Each structure stands twice: as C-alpha cells, then as structure tokens.
Amino acid sequence: MIKKIKITILTIALVFTSFSFTDNYFEIAKNLDIFTTLYRELNNYYVDETDPGELMKTAIDKMLKSLDPYTNYIPESEIEDFKFMTTGQYGGIGAVITKRKDYVFINEP
Predict the structure, then answer these.
(1) How far apart are CA 94 and CA 109, in angstroms?
(2) How does DSSP assign 25-74, residue by residue?
(3) Is 43 within the bounds of a domain?
(4) Using CA atoms, how far apart are residues 36 and 42, in angstroms rounded to an integer?
C-alpha cells in the first residue's frame, strides 16, 4: 500500500515537472522566433546599411551584460588568443610560460 502511494506521488511529481520544462522550452522557442524575425527584418529593410555580424555581437554582448558583469562571449576567431592569455601555452611550439616572483620562465611540457 505504501509502495503504491510512493509511486503515485512520484508519477504526479514527474508529470508536473515535465509540464514546467515544456513551458520553459515553449517560451524559449517563442522568444527566439521573435528575435530571428526582428533580426531578419532589420537586416533586410532598415533604412541604412547594417552589418549583420556587428548586430549579432551587440545583441549577445547586451544580453550577457544584463545578467552580470563577469559573463562574456568569446567569438571563435578570438579563442586562440583567449587560450593563450589564460593558460600561457603557445600553440605550435609546445612551450608553457610561467611567472615566478618577478621572472618569466619558459617551461617544457
């Protein structure tokens, strides 16, 4: 009897959880559709010439800035520079750069 009650409660909880995920996905899809339509219309019919890449970069940057000041988007073209700055590894020669006190050392991997 207790097992049936637990199974029933678990089933009801799963049903309500799936409805909330469905509502969230619907909201995301609806907003992406609105954004896509606006983006297309601006690029096609705006009175001045637009740069689609710059429009998208601005939209992404403003969206992330509205969340917090620490979240940033790094485009694919800048990934290698970002990896170099954060890891100190030079691609291609296998060197690792480290700093000890006031000196810079080139280490082998």
Answers:
(1) 7
(2) HHHHHHHHHHHHHHHHHHHHH-SS---HHHHHHHHHHHHHHHH-TT----
(3) no
(4) 10
User: Six-digit token pair at 105?
Assistant: 């050392």
pLDDT of residue 67 exceeding 90:
yes
Region 33-46 average pLDDT: 91
Q: Are the C-beta atoms of 97 and 105 separated by less than 8 Å?
A: yes
Give the DSSP H/E element, type plus range, for residue 10. helix 2-45
Query: Total structural domains in the chain?
Result: 1
Q: Reduce the DSSP state of residue 6 to 3 states and report it.
A: helix
Indicate if the pLDDT at residue 11 is higher than 90: no
User: Residue 86 is part of which domain span?
Assistant: 80-109
The answer as to whether 3 is a domain residue is: no
Mean pLDDT of 39-54: 91
Compute the distance between CA of residue 84 and CA of residue 78 in angstroms, rounded to an integer: 10
Euclidean distance between CA atoms 71 and 65, whole angstroms: 7
Q: Is position 35 within any domain?
A: no
